[in-house]
Automatic annotation (TrEMBL):
Superkingdom field: Bacteria
Reactions it catalyzes: Transfers a segment of a (1->4)-alpha-D-glucan chain to a primary hydroxy group in a similar glucan chain
InterPro entries from the UniProt entry: A-amylase/branching_C (IPR006048), Branching_enzy (IPR037439), GH (IPR017853), GH13_cat_dom (IPR006047), GlgB (IPR006407), GlgB_N (IPR054169), GlgB_N_E_set_prok (IPR044143), Glyco_hydro_13_N (IPR004193)
Name of the protein: 1,4-alpha-glucan branching enzyme GlgB
Family matches, as PANTHER family: 1,4-ALPHA-GLUCAN-BRANCHING ENZYME
Organism listed in the record: Paramagnetospirillum caucaseum
Length: 730
């Protein structure tokens, strides 16, 4: 028998050389045989290879012309390889195939049953040491693949060099590659069951990625961090509670502010940590909400078509720098919410689509698996490993990055099987209905997991339909979210304030209708990025009238919003009346603040946030009927509304009057429940905000004149296009 045949079977040698062997660990590395140990290694770049063991140095025999080497030794429990390359270089390496499996039996059991909530600690690329040798564990789920390899600069992107071991119990491929560490560039090369070589895949669990348009994953260790936000995290629950003031500034990191003198680049995470933090703190917002920070290939998607769900985008810095951004915002008293995209993913070839040559993460049937609106793939929520991937991702952001909440994008598209579909384009559930039962169960379980593991965090649903109990506990039949965006309130009020005041008497109900359902959910009142794109213009741009009226309208609208029940959300730029529609490729128009009218709007937002935070009546019962009472909601002829907001102490209330025509209302009588002096806390027509400064001299004295069902009343001078807030001095 030829020497080569005694060291390796010819069929195995050929399969390894072609990169088509289904079990490379059965061939490569050390294997006990009669009379000693056979060691095999595939080194296509090598002229010759030597084994360095305790017994000395032994040259290996080339057993296949493509670079497969083997040798039989009497024993070699530990060894290294010296590789003499064709280019004359020499390197000493550890053999990946002499190391034990990456995943333990318990990991495999939990992964198989879908209860491993912290898969991000096991899958992906984990920097660690094995038997005193530093390297990286790689593990990836691809149960239907014929072969999976790790490729990168370190092996010339040759998938034959580091084929992985398949753990059949869970469909996971794994390998420990010694000598790699932080910053290594890699992808997975996948051969489908039918022999097709698929496009190189980024790591679904990758912690970091190359700067787009490059698409490879980057080894990045998210090790222990000496976090400096302990006090914040201890109080997280009280800051996110529905009885707390929650005022959110929504931000697209790449276009908030740019550096024109440096190629108009975006700010980095570290620059944002200081500049954005100081700005938001000055304006008094309690939280920021970032449009998705997941890695995404197409900037025009604003992050809503992510490929790297576990990786903060490299556009603005490293994962550790994103941690610093969160930490510094906490240090300035600001919570951090991220948009979380669990409803779909894009078709980019390096992503999850057809990951192992099959519809692994998505449904195979396009009637279930393709979003018509966005031409993206819908997760298969009925697959254990897929929902486990998403549960773990939610916890990953809360634990590894200390974010305070997840705003779940496009929940409506997840709940309905017929979302944006015509008859015949969707498949009914097992009961014949249009509800996506698997997605519903996923959302409920996701919320249960988040609140069980992190009771102080918050989840928010972007949900625009009449689906009941979105923000009610799962055990009561709800979906379990902490809050829900009130899209109906947004549409109604924007429509009202966009109309010429002369017509508003006919649309009075647009401002009052929300009270019919305002307490069915824990609502957030959103004026989000969706309202300033796709030809809609800016919020300011929709205000009618001449320049004076447009600014007055906007100020009155914000006054109305901040004094209505519900948490608040405002997209960046709207706080100073950005005039043009938002453009993700350009900075906000900060020069507008040189105009006192724009600066006045920003001053108003600052004062509204201060008032909202300091007056319990404006936030404690934001989501309960007891926190709101109309004084008069029927004066449609004058387009005037008056109401009270109340806190836990019903005697601690504020009175709000909104005059939404350009007419001054003199001696306008408003009923109040208590006598005393009613101080004017805020007037959107103040000259400080750019208004005409029509006011009430600091306050008014209640008179014993019954009005609006109350024993007392106050006579007010209502400025044109204004919202005014009053409080009885106790």
């Amino acid at each position: 028998m030829p020497e080569a045949a005694r060291l390796i079977r010819p069929g195995d040698a050929d399969a390894i050389a072609r990169g088509r062997h289904g079990d490379p660990f059965a061939v490569l590395g050390p294997h006990e045989v009669k009379g000693g140990t056979v060691i095999r290694t595939f080194q296509p770049q090598a002229e010759s290879v030597f084994v360095l063991a305790a017994g000395g140095e032994t040259e290996m025999r080339r057993v296949h012309p493509d670079g497969l080497f083997a040798v039989k030794l009497k024993g070699a429990s530990a060894y290294r390889l010296r590789v003499l390359r064709h280019d004359g270089g020499v390197e000493e390496v550890d053999d990946p195939y002499r190391f034990p499996p990456v995943l333990g039996d318990l990991d495999l059991h939990l992964l198989r049953e879908g209860t491993h909530l912290r898969t991000f600690e096991k899958l992906g690329a984990q920097v660690r040491a094995v038997d005193g040798v530093a390297g990286v564990d790689f593990a990836v789920w691809a149960p239907n693949a014929a072969r999976v390899s790790v490729v990168g600069d370190f092996n010339g992107w040759d998938g034959r060099r580091h084929p992985m071991r398949l753990r059949h119990e869970a469909g996971i491929w794994e390998i420990f590659i010694p000598g790699l560490g932080q910053g290594a560039i890699y992808k997975y090369e996948v051969v489908a069951a039918d022999g097709r070589l698929l496009p190189l895949k980024a790591d679904p669990y990758g912690h970091f990625a190359e700067l787009p348009p490059k698409t490879a994953s980057v080894v990045w260790e998210l090790g222990p961090r000496d976090w400096q936000d302990g006090a914040w995290m201890a109080a997280q629950g009280s800051r996110n509670d529905r009885h707390a003031p929650v005022s959110i500034y929504e931000v697209h990191l790449g276009s908030w502010k740019r550096v024109p003198e440096d190629g108009n680049r975006s700010l980095s995470y570290l620059e944002l940590a200081d500049q954005l933090g100081d700005y938001v703190a000055d304006l008094g917002f309690t939280h920021v909400e970032f449009l998705p920070v997941h890695e995404h290939p197409f900037g025009g998607s604003w992050g809503y078509q992510p490929v790297g769900l576990f990786a903060p985008t490299s556009r603005y810095g490293t994962p550790d720098e994103f941690r610093t951004l969160v930490e510094r915002l906490h240090g300035k008293g600001i919570g951090v919410i991220i948009d979380w995209v669990a409803g779909h993913f894009p078709n980019d070839p390096h992503g999850l689509h057809h990951f192992d040559g099959t519809h692994l993460y998505e449904h195979e049937d396009p009637r279930l698996g393709v979003h018509k609106d966005w031409n993206t793939q819908i997760y298969n929520y009925g697959r254990t490993e897929v929902v486990n991937y998403l549960y773990a991702n939610a916890l990953h952001w809360l634990e590894q990055y200390h974010v305070d909440g997840l705003r779940v994008d496009a929940v409506a598209s997840m709940l309905y099987l017929d979302y944006s579909r015509e008859p015949g384009e969707w498949i009914a559930n097992r009961h014949g209905g249009n509800e996506n039962l698997e997605a519903i169960e996923f959302l409920r379980r996701m919320n249960q997991v988040v609140y069980a593991e992190h009771p102080g965090a918050m989840t928010i649903a972007e949900e625009s339909t009449a689906w009941p109990m979105v923000s009610r506990p799962v055990h009561l039949g709800g979906l379990g979210f902490g809050y829900k965006w009130n899209m109906g309130w947004m549409h109604d009020t924007l429509r009202y304030f966009s109309k010429d005041p002369i017509h508003r008497r006919y649309h009075h109900d647009s401002l009052t209708f929300a009270q019919l359902y305002a307490y069915h959910e824990n609502f957030v009142l959103p004026l989000s990025h969706d309202e300033v794109v796709h030809g809609k213009g800016s919020i300011f741009g929709r205000m009618p009238g001449d320049s004076w009226q447009r600014f007055a309208n906007l100020r009155a609208y914000y006054g109305f919003m901040w004094t209505q029940p519900g948490k608040k959300l405002l997209f960046m730029g709207s706080e100073f009346a950005q005039e043009r529609e938002w453009n993700e490729d350009a900075s906000l128009d900060w020069h507008l603040l040189d105009d006192g009218r724009h600066e006045g709007v920003r001053r108003l937002i600052r004062d509204l946030n201060r008032l909202y935070r300091t007056e319990p009546a404006l936030h404690q019962l934001d989501n309960e009927q007891a926190g709101f009472a109309w004084i008069d909601c029927n004066d449609r002829d004058n387009s005037v509304l008056t109401w009270r907001r109340l806190g836990f102490d019903p005697s601690d209330f504020v009175v709000v009057a909104g005059n939404y025509t350009p007419m001054v209302r003199e001696s306008y009588r408003v009923g109040v429940p208590e006598p005393g002096w009613y101080r004017e806390l805020l007037n959107t027509d103040s000259e400080w905000y750019g208004g005409a400064n029509i006011h009430n001299g600091g306050g008014v004295q209640a008179e014993e004149v019954p009005w609006h069902g109350h024993s007392w009343s106050i006579r007010l001078r209502l400025p044109p296009l204004s919202t005014c807030v009053f409080k009885r001095e106790r």
